[in-house]
Amino acid sequence: MPCLTAVIWRKTRGTAGVRERNLAKEISGERDLPAAGAGGEEFGVADVPYIDLTEVLNASGPADVDAALKNTQGSKENGKRLEFLDELRGFCVLAMVIYHGLYLLGQHFGVAPALAAYQALQPWQPGVAAIFILLSGVCVRFSSNIKVRALQLLVWAAVLMLVTILLLPALGMDMRETAVWFGVLHLLGFSKLLYHYGKGVFEKIPKLLGMAVSMLAFVFTFGGQHGVFSIFGYDVKLPQFLYQTNIFVPLGFHKPDFYAWDYFPLLPWFFLFLFASFLGRYMEGKDKLPDFCYKRYVLPLGFFGKHALLVYLLHLPVMAGIFVLIRYLSSGG
Fold it and tell me: In which band, very low, low, confident or very high, does the pLDDT at 66 lie, cut at 50, 70 and 90?
């Protein structure tokens, strides 16, 4: 035991607390280990006892580590999955699939009721996407490979962009109305990269101050696409050259005729991501979230939540292919 304690003392210097990391993975659906009894479920959370490393990290030597290990062993409850948040994520994914399906049916296949329903749901779309952004921002703080995850998201974003500008037009759709030039995957990928390279600065900002400032920045920059930053009645009119080219599309500035189906520029959405990262810091040290977060309510929603990225990548080409096939069969082949 003394030898093991010495190894732990050497290896855990500068390591984040296991309990805090597990909580983030419960929220995000990420994992490092197979969930107990789950048969290696892809997005599960390991059901293992936790050891809070706070006292371990502050230990001055192996003897103190030994005492800290005895005092910080926790129950298995910290390994439970946040089922409710899975289902919330699944609800958002399902809402997104329905929203995009209505758009395809109404805009490209001439189903008038579907188009009317799509237009009625438009005000809710940013709120659904905001949930994904918030979850991603909370969990970025606990990730040990932020840059890798960011690059993976950007690769998938590029794949989805190619699908919307090549495959969907091949199925008879107008690329000007289906293209995704800077969607939510682009946003999350670049936001993670910015956080990765700016983490040293963000860590020095008090968490509550960071939450307040980032939320104010989000509100202030929300009107950037319309030529003005505004907050509390104070307006800043932006220079017109920003809106005479599409070079600044990732930042939220573009020509008046620019259109993208799924568009989430860095301004203002990066600030919402940053707000969530400070919220993640605030959550550190919490044993667990309220009990209702650990209960299952609607199992199919949980399934969609655990496979959110896969559903997001596949739903457009799959639905477009199904609708084209139905139209072909209904026309007599």
Answer: low
User: Are the C-beta atoms of 105 and 99 separated by less than 8 Å?
Assistant: no
Distance, first Cα to last Cα, the chain: 75
Q: How far is CA 152 from CA 96, 134, 146, in A?
A: 22, 19, 10
Compute the distance between CA of residue 91 and CA of residue 303 in angstroms, rounded to an integer. 10
Token output for 106 = 């109404």
Q: Is the pTM of this model over 0.90?
A: no
Q: In degrees rounded to 5, what are phi and psi of residue 81?
A: -85, 145
Instruction: State how far the Cα of 49 lies from the Cα of 40, in Å rounded to an integer.
Output: 18
List, in sequence order, every residue forming a beta bridge with 229; answer none if it has no partner: 236
Q: What is the 3-state secondary structure (H, E, C) of the chain?
A: CHHHHHHHHHHCCCCCCHHHHHHHHHHHCCCCCCCCCCCCCCCCCCCCCCECCHHHHCCCCHHHHHHHHHHHECCHHHHCCCHHHHHHHHHHHHHHHHHHHHHHHHHHCCCHHHHHHHHHHHHHHHHHHHHHHHHHHHHHCCCCCHHHHHHHHHHHHHHHHHHHHHHHHHCCCCHHHHCCCECHHHHHHHHHHHHHHHHHHHCCCCHHHHHHHHHHHHHHCCCHHHCEEEECCEEEECCHHHHCCCCCHHHCCCCCCCCCCCECCHHHHHHHHHHHHHHHHHHCCCCCCCHHHHCCCCHHHHHHHHCHHHHHHHHHHHHHHHHHHHHHHHCCC
Position 58 pLDDT exceeds 80: no
Q: Give residue 264's pLDDT.
A: 95
Nearest to 261 by CA among 33, 102, 38, 48: 102
